[in-house]
Each structure stands twice: as C-alpha cells, then as structure tokens.
Amino acid sequence: MKNIAVLQVGPLMPIVQESITEEYGAVRLPDPPAEREEFLRSRGGSFEVAVTSGKVGVGTELMQALPNLRAVINFGVGYDTTDAAQAFERGITVSNTPDVLNDCVADTAIALYVDVLRGISASDRFVRRGDWLSKGNFPLATKASGKKVGILGLGRIGKVIAKRLEGFDCEISYHSRHPVTGVSYRYEPSPRDLAAGCDVLIVAAAGGAGSAKLVDAEVIAALGPRGYLINIARGSVVDEEALVAALLAGKLAGAGLDVFADEPKVPEDLLALDNVVLLPHLGSGTHETRAAMADLTLANLRAFADNGSVLTPVEP
Ligand code: 8YV
Questions:
Q1: Yes or no: is domain 102-278 CATH 3.40.50.720?
Q2: Burial of 139: CB neighbours in 10 Å, binned 0-12, 13-18, 19+
Q3: Is 125 considered catalytic here?
C-alpha cells in the first residue's frame, strides 16, 4: 500500500473506489452530518488527497476542514463543486478528466438538438399512446440541418459539437470569454448577441461563479419564440426560472436539457411540455467514456502519489 493518505468524498465508480481502497487504503468521508463533523474533527488533518466526483466535489467548508490537503482528484471535467479558488490560494493541486468525454457529451448535445427540433421523443410518445392510429399524422416539425447555431463556450466540448454540426451544414457562431484562435466560426461579443443571431443556442460553457445565469431572461428573449435552447453544460449557466417562464409563455420554441439547477430535481412545469426533452445528466454516461474517465482519475492520483504532480491539472 502506498504511503499517501486518501479521502474518498462522495460515491465513485466501483472500479475507482476499489482501486483507491486497495492501493492507498482510502477512507470514505461519512455522509450523516454529525458523524462527518466528528470524523473531520478527529481525522481531518490526516488526509493529503481527496478523490471526488464533479457531482459532489470538495466545497469550501470541507476543504477548510482538511488543513493538510495537497490535491483534489476530480472524476469529471467539471469541477464547479470544488472550491478551486481556495485550492489555488493554498497551493492545492486540482485535477479533472478533460478530453476523454468530449465525444460523448458532444453526441448528447447533437441528440438533444435533433430530438427537440424534429420532435423525436414527443413522436415516440405519440406512437406509444396510440395517437398515430386515432389521430393520424404527427404534426410537422422543424428542419435540423442548415440552421444557424450559436455555441456558448467554445472549449474542448464546444469545438467537438461545432465539428458535428458542420456535418449538418449549420452556420456556426460562438461566444467565449475570448475569441478562439484557429477556428473559422463567427465570434459574437456577448451571449445576448449570440442568441440574437442564431436559431439554436447550445450551452457548453464551464459551470461555476463566473458563468452563473449567463443565459438570463434577456438572452432567452433574444433567442425568441422561434429559437431553441440546448444545455449540456451545467444548470447553473441558465436562469432556470426565466427558461421555464419563457417556455410556458410560448416565448421559446423548445429546449433540450441534460443538466438542471438543482439535480436531480427537474422543474415540475417542464414535465408536461412536449417541446422540451429532459435527460438525467447522462452526457458522459457510456461504458467506454466512464472507463476512460476512471482510468484518467486513477492515473492522476498515481502520478500525484509518485511524484507530486498530476497529468491533467486544472489551471488557476
Ligand atoms: C459526469 C460531468 O457525469 O464531467 C462532467 O463534468 O458533468 C459528467 O461527465 C459527472 O461529472 C460525474 O460526477
């Protein structure tokens, strides 16, 4: 067993959990609040590395209760649940699992895109209800090819989504904090300008304080009643109340959502809407991609244990 004290924070894939327990004797942080508090009081100072997932993370208070923490190894590309600012201030290394999930998350964005515009899930329900027999043809939908698509956040995943949309002959524009070099897509100076100039807005920006409610009521209004919103990033990037209000009022044509503000809770009002496709945050959820994420998570932990640095660090 290697000589580094590892804390498991939250549930992990069985292969990751088994490996960190076998190789490092990792200890799981208790979930019940009273037990957790006592555990951290008596043992918090002993852990050097925390292994967690993007879903749970090492938040502000937990990080404070781990005074000798040197690394947070995060399963997932998103690390918005971890207090990265505190980590960087304290010189704590943070790693994530970039790139290995680009294909699957981009595929999910495209699946939502085609589904929402063409009404695939809605028409599946139509067939199952027997409406094809009793009501006749399914109503006409919206063409998916050749649309103007705006991508909010042209990072690793955003670029793969754009590449897939080129195959649909889409005209692609984007907004990121800075224009991205080496791409031919049109840069828009703000989320509002991006939304005003496209038919479909795809949210692919990282979560966290910097992107909170970047898609607000004004951006949704700019997208307009013929516009569609797809979100495969984080629920926090969209003002969910404004989104629901626009959909209920017919001020947005439809939405495809893999992520929500308070998962696994989904706004009740969306459940009855046929122009909305709702997924349970499954963007990276394939055997192949989760295995690759597990491998990278373990490789980061092993590299840190062996030489004090990780393979895919999060940059401050
Ligand atoms: C994971 C994700 O489901 O990588 C991410 O940021 O959102 C997903 O791939 C999640 O992080 C696992 O906790």
A1: yes
A2: exposed
A3: no
CA of 260 to the centre of ligand 1 (A): 13
pTM exceeds cut of 0.85: yes
Nearest-CA residue for atom 6 of ligand 1 = 78
Q: Which amino acid is at 63?
A: M
pLDDT tens track for 170-180: 999 999 999 99
Minimum-distance ligand 1 atom for the alpha carbon of 281: 3
Domain range list for the chain: 6-100+288-307, 102-278
Q: What are the tens digits of pLDDT across the range 157-216?
A: 999 999 999 999 999 999 999 999 999 999 999 999 999 999 999 999 999 999 999 999
Compute CA distances 37 → 10, 54, 65, 186, whole Å.
15, 22, 9, 51
Active-site residue, 263 included: yes
| CATH superfamily for domain 6-100+288-307 | NAD(P)-binding Rossmann-like Domain (3.40.50.720)
Answer yes or no: is the C-beta of 78 below 6 A from any ligand 1 atom: yes
